[in-house]
User: Fold these one by one.
Assistant:
Number 1:
Amino acid sequence: MDKEAGRIKITVLKRFDTKEVFKDPPVKAKYSGPCPIFKEGQVFQVDDSMPNGFCPYAWDTIFPMIMTLKFGGNCSEWYEEPGVAVACCPDGLRPVVFKLERKKPGSSGRFRKPSKL
């Protein structure tokens, strides 16, 4: 990848249970409870590819926004702060919401897990 591209931090903000999304779900799921892949507060760093342990369905959905931020774009139509975005996975019955943040090119250090959400 381009060495001038920024790194992206993905933070899991919220996992929803189907009961939080629908009183009466429109379809019956083969699963229950919130997504088992992620934990709230979990942090991933994006360098050149999907982070280990990341859900490929969520990755496919948020990838365009990650690339926009990674290469200097912003989501200014929705957010006042440059270099950030909020996105969610495609599971409509138990979505997971992520915060995406661009780290400036050339900055040192790795992202740290937030102390409290």
Number 2:
Amino acid sequence: MKDINKIALNKLKEVLKELNKLPGIVGSAIIKKDGEIVVKDMPDYINDDFMNMLSTIEGFIENMLPNSNDIAPNEVIIRGKYGNIIAVNIGDVTLVVMSNLRANLNNILEIIDDFSDDIKNYCNILFENTLELPIRQILLMGERKKFRRDVDIAIFRFLRFINLRKYIGVGNETLMYYFGRELCKNLKFNDFDELSDFYEKYKLGEIEIISENPIKIRIYDCVSCSGLPNVGKPLCHFEAGFLAGYVENIFNKKSYVIETHCWGLGNEFCQFEIKLINKSKNKK
């Protein structure tokens, strides 16, 4: 993974070096949508303070540039007294090019267009190979000196209920469901006792089987919803995904999980009904 990331990063550096050979270009940088600088090739007199300011400008530019799948990227040109800043939207990043007043902007934009596919592809490689630690390795990692493993429940609920859709275009419910499902599928419990022990050890709640046919599972003291008011809808998408991952591993079948009881519905426990889909997961 590290080798792939290094290759992609070096390729992006090569692209910037080629761009900077064009007459009139002073420097260039590739910046993520959150303002993080992926790679830069700027002269020494352009310091980190200026790059931080450039990141702020990028945040402004992001609101002006719609995402585009067109061949020609969208661009914004900021003309100054002593030079220009060209910002071009390319996939998940913005290419920022600084030029002097003598630069041929049309020519620069044409060259940027030629490099846009390479930038997009190498950035995709770089972002797709982000650090991902094995689930069990994370669970076994050392404790903190003072606070050890304790984290207030409010932190989990911030992640659960903050409106992520306005930032990434995907709702919390979907993210939490697939997070729970992926977590449980990686843990690979052999039976319900192992799942129950995990729930108690990590203080996720007290879990029990109410019925085996149909499968009904109840959770008391749920980490997602216990103590919350009646809001007229179920809230435990993480738990639903977690249980889906469990039964899919055990029965090797896809499942459909519905939460029938929840603090969000006015109950004082959570209950889920799980239906197995007869088609095997491995059957094509």
Number 3:
Amino acid sequence: MIRLINIPPSWMETQPRVERFAPSMEGVSQGKAPIADQVEFSQEALALSRAVSDSTRRIMRIAAIRDEIRAGTYETTQRVEGAVDRILKLLSL
């Protein structure tokens, strides 16, 4: 917890304010693109982003399957036949 004690109101007026700046338009008149900021992400950050996205997708798929099971629409004839075919292939029958 941060506690501010006995700070005069004039202190707030003397502090620099944050301003937003537009990209530099330098060189635009010569047909060049405006200068803009660039951001680079590390490989670790990209991997983490993919992992979070995959995790979210997985959670949503599990929730959808649970809803289908509750509604009695998950076990269709096609799914049962597909599962039997895969088991028979694994057993080489």
